[in-house]
Amino acid sequence: MAQESSADIVQCPVCLRDFKAADINSHLDNCLLQAEVNEQEPESESSGEPPRKKQCTAEPCPAMSAWGAKEGSGAPSTSVFSLFQKGKPGTTGDSDAPGFFSNRRTTFQKSDEADRFANIHKLGKRSAPGGDVSGDQLRSKPAQDELATLGTQTREKLYDSKPLAEKMRPCTLEEYFGQNKVLGENTLLRSLLETQDIPSLILWGPPGCGKTTLAHIIATNSKKSGNSRFVTLSATSTSTSEVREVIKQAQNELKLFKRKTILFIDEIHRFNKSQQDTFLPHVECGTVTLIGATTENPSFQVNAALLSRCRVIVLEKLSVEAMESILARALDSLGIRVLEQEGDDSASIRDISGSSEPSIYIEQKALSTIAHLCDGDARAGLNGLQLAVQSRLSAARLGQLKQVVIQEDHIKEGLQRSHILYDKAGEEHYNCISALHKSMRGSDENAALYWLGRMLEGGEDPLYVARRLVRFASEDVGLADPMALTHAVAAFQGCHFIGMPECEVLLAQCAVYLARAPKSIEVYSAYNKVKECLKSHKGPLPPVPLQLRNAPTKLMKSLGYAKGYKYNPSFTEPVEQDYLPEEMKGINFFQKKPNNF
């Protein structure tokens, strides 16, 4: 008979034998049935040989019988294709026979992940500065396999579509760093969260301080307890109708299942006042527990009525120590070792992973640089770390390198510059301009330059700063140095002419001049008293005296306008005449004080 063409031959993925395309389906059914029965039979207890599988009671597969007879071992010990084994107890999905899918490793469980990383970290510790990683346990096959698997998982986490900050988001309060003031041991909020007695909250803090993460921790705890339902919405993309639909579902959940609904609104300040009013009756009656996150001052961006029904939790910018803890947790997850001593270098470290991918190390100084440059923003720090590692890995692959050491320069290149917390239309805008004004008033030129730099480097409009300096020149310097106003106006015009970044030195010069100038609020205080006098006056305001009125026509002159007015330049002596209304005679808006303030 003519030989079968190779196109008509198909390999069984279970027993790895070749069959005709027309026979493969019936064979695969029998083969899988036999393997399933064999998996359910107890293994042999004999110590001399590996355990054998018992024959299937169903009709045996001819090909399998022939294979077993040929090998002289009865039925072969097969390994079922991992797709068919998913979810069965006691199976790993590994294959003993060589072939396709036979080398896939078992996935580690989450519960063992922390211990596994800790053990690998211990295996990877160097015995002395500049010494090699050595020891029988490191040269053993299990240790090399473990490190190789860790290296593969590191690359998967680095090149996944999700940012590293999202993948490293904590799920428990024990992993939540940097907010001990409000969530430390024995604090009121922590006790409420642990007992699932969650009040309505407004989480206020700068970007990357953990507002959304705290909400996710609450969501995880609520899912575990099962007594509440967690819904997440973003004010940037949610309409009022969607909010009403969620509230309607919350009402049904409460009526039918006695289950509460926790509603998390990210960027709640993006909702206008009328949209925020939608929550009022439902938060009041307890239909939903509202958790809002905002980077803006709730006093300005959230309705007063809604604020009275929620507790405002102020989350602070993360400290350098908290950032180092967060980064260390990420490095442990990625399997990246830290070179803690200055004598460490990549040349003295042997590659023991057995992986084709380069080994990754990071200097302790580089880690500290991330913690300082991210300015308390955990999201920026983790994503900056990911960018630096990715860039060095790409360079290592091009250069055929087996090791990658991330240094301080690589981190600075990835982050470029410090993240300056500044919002031209938000809370930080008013905080910084207030600090600049008070520093100049206190004659502290160093602080004045610092706050000026914070504003300009954060992207503030230089003309806005220049206008504030003009105001300061008259309000705080005043008549103590009349040239201050001239300097401030000149600085404003210069900024208008040349713009940023050239005009920054003009503003710096003006700020230093105003800080060093003598101060006087005599005019400022006097004018404030005039305004107060006008506001507190009862009845109609007194008319302008006739001698002070202008008389351009004969009728006005006949009515007494300008009658009795003494033209001062016509007299060599000082002229005495009244310039205030009769009711205001003797008033003095200027009061001298010892320090002229």
How does this structure look, described?
By secondary structure, the chain is α/β, with parallel strands linked by helices. The termini are far apart. β1 (9-11) and β2 form a beta hairpin. The protein has helices at residues 24-40, 62-71, 82-85, 113-123, 136-139, 141-158, 164-167, 180-183, 188-194, 211-225, 240-257, 273-277, 280-285, 298-301, 304-308, 320-334, 364-373, 378-398, 408-415, 427-441, 445-457, 462-477, 483-498, 504-516, 522-536, 554-558, and strands at 9-11, 18-20, 201-204, 228-234, 260-266, 288-294, 311-314, 337-339, 359-363, 403-406. The strands form three sheets. The protein has a five-stranded parallel beta sheet with strand order 4-5-6-3-7, sandwiched between helices. The protein has a three-stranded parallel beta sheet with strand order 8-9-10. Strands 1-2 form a two-stranded antiparallel ribbon. Helix content is 47%, strand content 8%. The chain is elongated and about 125 Å long. Keywords: Acetylation, ATP-binding, Cytoplasm, DNA damage, DNA repair, DNA replication, Hydrolase, Immunity, Innate immunity, Isopeptide bond, Metal-binding, Nucleotide-binding, Nucleus, Phosphoprotein, Ubl conjugation, Zinc, Zinc-finger. One of its GO terms (molecular function) is zinc ion binding. Residues 36-73, 124-143 are annotated as: Disordered. Belongs to the AAA ATPase family. RarA/MGS1/WRNIP1 subfamily. This is ATPase WRNIP1.
